[in-house]
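The methods section describes the discrete structure representation at length, but only in general terms. Each protein is reduced to its one-letter sequence and a matching series of backbone shape codes. I believe one specimen quoted in the main text would settle the matter. An entry of this sort, consisting of the sequence and the corresponding backbone structure tokens, reads as follows.
***
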Amino acid sequence: MQLPPTWCGSICRNAMSEVCIEHCAVKRDCTGFALKPGMNLIVSPRFPIEHISDMTKEEKFTLVAVYVAMTVDHLKGVQDEPELTPIRRPNHDNSTSSQVSPNLKVEDLLPDLGAGVSSLQDGQERPSETFRPDEVAGTSD
């Protein structure tokens, strides 16, 4: 188990994950590298030229490829747009799928709601649901 280099941890989506610390950072081959979403040349850290002598061939290749791609995207004006994934896709083709009408009222769902409230006469109090000590049932042996 090993921690990733600082340059990698700042731009990799898998930094500090299980894939990173158990495989990629140990072998230092960038097999688990995935660019963080939203990374571009403006928000990325400076190119780590001072650490280039400590990098493996695979790390150098990955780093240079990422920074060249971000530079080209920046020069072309391409921005990394966030991926919008739907939270839920309704399946309208399936017979088991049901749609809830937006105009449902509580009275439609609970038809006895009005009857329960009107069962008390005006001025009557609702019976207490608490028990007095003399009402508690004792055990009969």
Summary: The chain has five helices and no strands.
